[in-house]
Amino acid sequence: MKALLFDLDWTLVDIQGFTDYGTALEDVRELVGEWADVGAPDTSWDAPARICMEALVALAGDSRWQALSDAIERHELAAVPQSTPMTGLELLIDTVSDTPVAVVTLMGPEAARLALATHEVPFTTVVGRLHDLRPKPAPDQIIEACRLLGVPPSDTTMIGDSTWDMEAANAAGAGFIGITNHRPSEFAPGTVTVADLTELSHHLASSELRHR
User: Which is nearest to 138 in space by CA: 169, 168, 175, 170?
Assistant: First the structure.
């Protein structure tokens, strides 16, 4: 692998645990009412967070999408000061210091960059949710991150905590490693998984990435 792509929330930093997605969901419903079920994959996210993200997927390309995203991002921005690093973040940063890295996240771009700065994560290529990119589990964000890094998806590995990350990676033709955060795996059988960022760092240090 020539590059790594990381999800942000519950992969590098815990922001969801401090985000008032319940109120965000009230804002979403006030803005857009109801939306069509898009059959998004099941995931272990809290229900209000999952429904907010499903709304963003369902309304991709809709004229109301940016207002919807902005309403959710206000709550994400408010949560960043209370957010916490995931176990092993410092070791991971050291492990991948010589590797091209991008962050591919469903969070708003301003909130994502603030979270990275708050926790001193030196990953500067960030693809947050944008109006002109279909969000994960579609492949668009991963493809855009690869374009910015100058590598094809087949030479990258996406690392994330959810089936949305896995499906986006598969659709883009990228590799995938799932982080379980010490919970039962929700990933497809045969998926490479690690419990946390510490285990991921050990896996990467012994892999072909270290010797590319």
Answer: 168
Kindly report, residue by residue over 45-56, the tens digit of the pLDDT. 889 999 999 999
Tokens 């960030």: give the residue: 126
pTM above 0.90, yes or no: yes
- In degrees and rounded to multiples of 5, residue 11 shows phi and psi of -115, -60
Helix (H, G, I), strand (E, B) or coil at 107: coil
Q: How many residues would you count in the chain? A: 212
Please, what are the domains in the chain? 3-14+84-205 (3.40.50.1000), 16-81 (no CATH)
Q: Which residues of 36-65 are buried (b: 16+ CB within 10 A; e: fewer)?
A: eeeebeebebeebbbbbbbbbbbbbeeeeb
